Fold this sequence. Notes:
The complex is a heterodimer.
Chain A lengths: L1 E6 L1 H18 L6 E6 L3 H16 L5 E4 L29 E9 L3 H11 L6 E9 L11 E5 L7 E5 L8 E6 L1
Parallel strand pairs in A: 2-3, 2-4, 4-5, 5-6
Antiparallel strand pairs in A: 1-8, 7-8
Chain B lengths: L15 H18 L13 E6 L5 H12 L3 E6 L11 H10 L4 E6 L4 H8 L3 E7 L5 H15 L6 E5 L6 H12 L3 E5 L15 E3 L2 H5 L4 E4 L15 H8 L3 H4 L7 E3 L12 H4 L6 H21 L10
Parallel strand pairs in B: 1-2, 1-3, 3-4, 5-6, 5-8, 6-7, 8-9
Amino acid sequence: MAETLILNATAMQRALTRIAHEIAERDEAGSEVVLVGIQRGGVPLAQRLSTLLSGIWGQPIPTGQLDVSMHRDDLDQRVAPDMQPTVIPFDVTGKTVVLVDDVLYSGRTIRAAMDALNDFGRPRRIQLAVLIDRGHRELPVKADFVGKNVPTAHTESVHVRLSELGGLDEVVLEKK
Amino acid sequence: MSWNRKDLLDIESLTAEEILTVLDTARAFKAVGERAIKKVPALRGKTVVNLFIEPSTRTRISFELSEQRLSADIINFTAEASSLKKGETLKDTARNLEALNADFIVIRHSASGAPHFLARVLNASVINAGDGAHEHPTQALLDMFTIREKKGRIEGLKVTILGDILYSRVARSDIWALTKLGAHVTLCGPSTLVPGVFAQMGCRVTYHVDEAIGDADIINLLRIQHERQRKTMFPGLGEYTSLFGLNKSRLARAKPDALIMHPGPVNRGVEIDSEIADCDRSLILQQVTNGLAVRMAVLFLVNGGKGPQEVAPA
């Protein structure tokens, strides 16, 4: 069970800062950008991006959190997932929604997230920001903003550890 | 997270952790009910049979709406219109329903143990919606959800169940759930309806209503179930009301933050005064709302509980 460090705390911070600037560049301040973190890792990352982005634009960025469990496509093939709160304290209709997740893998979570988001309104557009893209897509999903691309094997796992969830800020690749 | 069961048959066989898993899951489903779009696709393409062999209105409606909010397809089956009237056995009825590829059977039956029997002979998930005087697990789960929501905890609370305990499946399920979660349970009612044997379930039994409600955090009232009583168990409803009915003056002797619950249907003027039923300490309608969230959670969990037991990557 060897672990390789992919990002340390400084590199993670740098990646998030770059993503924030890319969002600011792509979506002008007036385009009503809101951030929605996907439970669980995406939620603290969305909070951090929100802070960075509000520093750049000089205005608060509305930020929500989304649990996609009820929209998963594998519910009858697994133990029922542990559910975290969904809190979208704003209307998404007409907004540019940036979904935020820690790791992009099969793309199925993002499909579920887009479905779940639909129940809250009709966004003007949906974009995707991820800290790590590890490849192996099973659906036609592509991230708009990527912290780091990491080539992986199916047998490996990527762990994003965040101080908000207990522990140090780091990303490691575990070989099994 | 720990739910590996394909059925929900009773509270007695659940662990405290499993009960808490249902309550935590129900919290997410309660939020769904508060949105403009109150529906999620979690059970899309699944078929649920509501097999209500004993009449029921509120539980059946609550289950039906929960199933619809999970996007399931629904077949309703009631005793009056069923082939059971024509002599078909319960087992044959159930096998016929399974031949339609039903994924879930929600059963209400006057015979204790009917859901357990079905769960043994069918591959479909079976959910007990009340079996005789045995158990009514989803009612107990929604009661626990409501108590935890209002009081922030269940452990250490004093909960009094007042009324017809003997014939009440709600009481049995509540007693199991409350004691497993660490609450102190007091039972009170006419001695003919509250046998001392309930002390074996870890309850305090008293026949004096002031003693029962004096230190209670929660007062859960039960209806007198005329339909289940084979003979008269007490002189009359008037006497029951004067000895055990919850009214303003009795409630004044309870703790000021004691809350009132009732599984319904409420017999106003019998076990509870109208003004108490409608006061801001009454949780009766919140129990109804929470029933939807809890039943959605149960359907969601048993659906996951019958697949291969591996946890998918997050």
